[in-house]
Amino acid sequence: MSDTAWSGRFPANGIIDLLDHFPTHNLGESTSRDLLFGELLDLVGMESVRGLPLGYVSAAGSARLRDRISTLTGVPAEWVLTTQGVGLALFLLAFEHCRPGDEAIIVTPCFPPSRDAMVGAGVQVVTVPLEFDRGYRLNVDAIADRLTPRTKLVSVASPQNPSGVRFHDDDVESLLAAMSHRAPDALLLIDEIYRDATYGTAPVSASFASRDPRVLTTGSISKAYGAPGLRVGWVTVPDPGLRSRLIVAKMNIVLSSSALDEAFADLLLAHREEILAPRRAMLEDALNVLEEWHTTEKDRLDWIRPDSGAMCCMRLRADRYDDGAVSRFWDRLPERDVQVGSGLWFGESARVFRLGFGYLPLTGFRLALEALTATLDDVSR
Fold it and tell me: If exposure means fewest CB atoms within 10 Å of the residue's CB, which of 66, 70, 76, 371 is most exposed?
């Protein structure tokens, strides 16, 4: 898919609408509910941060926070670089590891900034679409076919945004083997931002961070923890030369992360199980509600059950909705004050949408699903 084709498939004001419009029936969010500052203070107490100096911290990130992340990812703390959200990590990698004319392979559907960072750096982006009908499972053969000696980065996510689909260890091993033969200078970037967003008591999959020296991983406290306002993410970088360049680039762009943000992120991760346990229970309850709702809508909607995360992908069935009906669906959603994530934004078709089920309380979530059913009724008439 060309750059022009991608950008032209999503309305120019789409990003603004997603960020600035807060509908009653918000099914567009991909996070758990917002963590309240008071909830964090109830766990840690104000005294824990009263003596915090509000000066610069290390450009690599505070030592305590990096130690905390190293425990979660299973790699040495010196491999960890903190960033203002994963977005900054993506831009740093685009500008420091890739150069204009290099190639980056990105699977779609994907979180758009993971692609836009490469485009902004002048990198030639090669997209490999995954298939809804195959459950968005990673297609290693299709990726391998697009690898060349010019490929410098292969970017995937596990669990994926927008689908919540996780891929398997064997997929990573096969992909790394293909990269060795066809793209020896390429690195594999795996976004793990939804890894902690499991359901109920389901185990958390191990990080890929220590799998291979060519593997970089990203994560943050934005999604599973519900704290995107703290703007703390990270990237694990085994190669010391690349890591040094990323640190210098971060210092030249933002000097350092916020001392306050990093201090609270450290405290949040120190109490991660206390914060995550109720959220995982809520995600499980909401997923059960969603699955039950879908049984009543399966003649109109296909869906892919997610493995982790607070969102999934659904698709308007072609045997029920022609292209005109699909357009009417998007027109009617605002009339019902319903918001979902357009598949166009993620590099998919307009038939597909991302539905978030972790942000609203269960009562509000059920009402939002009722409003979505009413929208489908409107279009079906």
Answer: 76
Architecture of domain 52-271: 3-Layer(aba) Sandwich (3.40)
Instruction: Inform me whether the pLDDT recorded for 29 exceeds 50.
Output: yes
Average pLDDT over residues 133-153: 97
Q: Compute, in degrees rounded to 10, the torsion defined by CA atoms 43, 46, 47, 49.
A: 100
Buried b (16+ CB within 10 A) or exposed e, 237-263: bbeeebbebbbebbeeeeebbbbebbb
Is pLDDT of 10 > 70?
no
What pLDDT was estimated at residue 121? 85
List, for residues 72-126, the tens digit of each pLDDT value. Answer: 999 999 999 999 999 999 999 998 999 888 999 999 999 998 999 889 888 999 9
Query: What is the pTM for the complete model shown?
Result: 0.93
Taking CA atoms, 13 is separated from 10, 114, 212, 345, 378, in Å, by: 8, 19, 40, 11, 25
E strand map for the chain: 25-26, 80-83, 103-108, 124-129, 151-157, 187-191, 215-220, 233-236, 301-304, 311-316, 338-339, 341-342, 352-356
Q: Name the CA radius of gyration of the chain, rounded.
A: 21
Residues of the chain with CATH 3.90.1150.10: 3-35+274-380
What DSSP string runs through 119-135? HHTT-EEEEEE--GGGT
* Neighbour order of strands in the sheet with 352-356: 301-304, 311-316, 352-356, 341-342
CA distance 298 to 294: 6
Residue 35: DSSP 8-state:
P
The 8-class DSSP code of residue 315 comes to E
Instruction: Locate CATH 3.40.640.10 in the chain.
Output: 52-271
Torsional sign, CA 129, 132, 138, 141: negative
In SS3 terms, 147-192 reads as: CCCCEEEEEEECCCCCCCCCCCHHHHHHHHHHHHHHCCCCEEEEEC
Indicate the pairing of strand 352-356 with strand 311-316: antiparallel
**Superfamily of structural domain 3-35+274-380:** Aspartate Aminotransferase, domain 1 (3.90.1150.10)
The residue-averaged pLDDT of 39-43 equals 90
